[in-house]
Amino acid sequence: MKSIKPRPPISLNAKSISSLSFWKIWPNLPSEILAWLELEQDEYYSLIPHDQVITYIQSAIQYGNELAVKFPTYQGLKELCNLLIKDGIRVNFPSRHSSSEWIRAQYHSRSSTIEVYQTSLQQLQDFFLYRCKEAVKKEDLIALHLYHEWFHYLEEQKYGRTDQLLPKVRVKKWGSFSIKHTIYQTREIAAHAFTQTMLRLEWSPLLLDQLLLFLHQGWTRVQIREHFSQLRLRFDQLLQEQSQEEDSKETKT
Asked: Which domain of life is it from (predicted)?
């Protein structure tokens, strides 16, 4: 009978999340390109003026970074939890989200509660340990989730929502009347930028979502790298087109 190989303990030689080196080995993308992929998921992305796409991305990242400098960077989970307690936020750890395994955590404004799902913590632990051969401190993974959701609390309760600080897009128009809507995904972009700065990461947390999604779909590391190369080309083209449109506007004026 074939013996079952036990899982090595996660805490063995666990590293801080800021010292991980997986992003040097696995395919990687700059924060702006990862943010662009996030922006594309917005239901109103197609309504953003073509020459404003980069502005939405950069503005959201900048807003997340600006809020981050208002607070001390990560010193430990205890210190972070003390900040949450001061804001009257409770933290729960349900086993999983009721409808989607890809929802990692949520901030509930009515109850002022952050829920961090244990399935997400386990998924990340397994990725780092078995795919990257690096064990990461569980408290740092918890902090990764908490910072993201704390940002949503901060933008809702203290500093203003990211999407409401950026221009709305026109959804419908009847004569002189029009319906406009915010670009919600800018909130996610800003939250990831905030988290990256607070944890002093050299990689965007959005990278994890991309890698885990493609691995879940059965992609190899080579396939992911080739796909990322194509994304770089598409993004470079987007930058060139926006630059040309800006030059054209200047010429007309």
From this structure: Bacteria
